[in-house]
Amino acid sequence: MPKAGIIYNDAKEIACKVAFELREKLIARGLDVSMATGVGGILEYSCPERPVCHARIEQLIPPNFDSEVSFSIVLGGDGTVLSAFRQLAPCGIPLLTVNTGHMGFLTETYINQLPQAIEKLLCCDYEIEERSMLTVQVFREKTLLWEALCLNEMVVHREPLTSMCHFEIEIGRHAPVDIAADGVIISTPTGSTAYSLSAGGPVLTPDVPALQLAPICPHSLASRALVFSEKEPVNIFPATPNRMVMVVDGNGGCHIFPEDRIYIERSRYSARFIRLQPPEFFRILREKLGWGLPHIAKPNSVELP
Predict the structure, then answer these.
(1) Which domains does the chain have, with CATH numbers?
(2) What is the pLDDT of residues 89-134, one digit of tens each?
(3) Is 78 a catalytic residue?
(4) DSSP letters of the chain?
(5) pLDDT of 300 above 80
(6) Which residues fall within 8 angstroms of residue 130, CB to CB, at 6 or more apart?
(7) Cα 61 to the chain's mean position, in Å?
(8) Most CB within 10 Å of its CB: which of 3, 158, 168, 214?
(9) How remote is the C-alpha of 171 from its chain's centroid?
């Protein structure tokens, strides 16, 4: 019997209602259906009193989800999509993302289009778009304190009421650089339209095999966003005595101390998006962020008497 999955945001009434209705419809079509909430992909926080506090990446896979699941449907907003990929990317399960939120930058379709989308799924009339993910790990000497899968970005920044921080950053075998800023962002091409964009970084199309480093409020005109090969691992060392905070995908993270090291590399797992039509990234940029909209002509100037 073919297997399918459903991940839904149980904090939204409409997502819950649609999830259980969809489950019955898929069962009626002869599928074995597993369900889970997006809560399972929420990352744990580490704290100074209990620094080793992490769930290993593969431990986030929900029960009854495995590589035999042909596809999974995600009902929620971008946060649920990020959570679902943390849960299912290790299994290689492709996801059809259905927007029940607001922005829905990462979603493929809407609830009112779900019946047509299901028919395409069952007929295998779709493409799969693979996007890079990151593995983010925090070490203290040789002890792994925390790790997570990341689809958008890793951010490390100063705490409130503390001064600007220094970061020593090593990219691959290149010479280390020192950046003085409120924080730094390491993002994937998918994350280039998220926090990194707000920090002044460029937009990368999803197929570009690159990562980017974007300083947050740098104290130098020379510190600007840097795009580099995704094959290059990154080590970040705090070069300041102040405690800092690391956040992954805006969801969870841990405190970073001067003796810690943050290690980032492209993950061996990929985010596999189900596309019901050929991916068109510029259309999404235009619809969601207003990029490339035609200019409105200025009215003709009128001479005053």
Answers:
(1) 3-125 (3.40.50.10330), 133-268 (2.60.200.30)
(2) 999 999 999 998 777 889 999 999 999 999 999 999 999 999 999 9
(3) yes
(4) --EEEEEE-TTSHHHHHHHHHHHHHHHHTT-EEEEEEGGGGPPP--BTTB------GGGGPPTT-STTEEEEEEEE-HHHHHHHHHHHGGGT--EEEEE-SSS-TT--EEGGGHHHHHHHHHTT--EEEEEEEEEEEEEETTEEEEEEEESSEEEEEEPTT---EEEEEEETTSPPEEEEESEEEEE-TGGGGTHHHHTTPPP--TT--EEEEEEES-SSTT---EEEETTS-EEEEE-SSS-EEEEETTTEEEEE-TTEEEEEEEEEEEEEEEESS---HHHHIIIII-TTPPPPPPPPP----
(5) no
(6) 270, 271, 272, 273
(7) 17
(8) 214
(9) 21
Which one-letter amino acid corresponds to residue 67? S
pLDDT for position 111: 92
Instruction: Give the rounded distance of the alpha carbon of 149 from its chain centre.
Output: 9
Q: Which of 150, 147, 154, 155 is nearest to 55 (CA)?
A: 147
In angstroms, what is the C-alpha Rg of the chain? 21
Name the pTM for this structure. Answer: 0.90
pLDDT, position 50: 61
Distance CA 26, CA 24 (A): 6
What does the alpha-carbon distance between residue 69 and residue 71 come to, in Å, rounded to a whole number? 6
| pLDDT score of 53 more than 90 | no
> Of 32, 78, 178, 207, which one is the catalytic site residue?
78
Cα dihedral: 21, 26, 27, 30 (round 10): 160
Torsion of CA 247, 203, 226, 45, to 10 degrees: 10
pLDDT tens digits, 218-258: 988 888 999 999 999 999 999 888 899 999 998 878 889 99
**What does the pLDDT look like over 28-42, one tens digit per residue?**
999 999 999 998 887
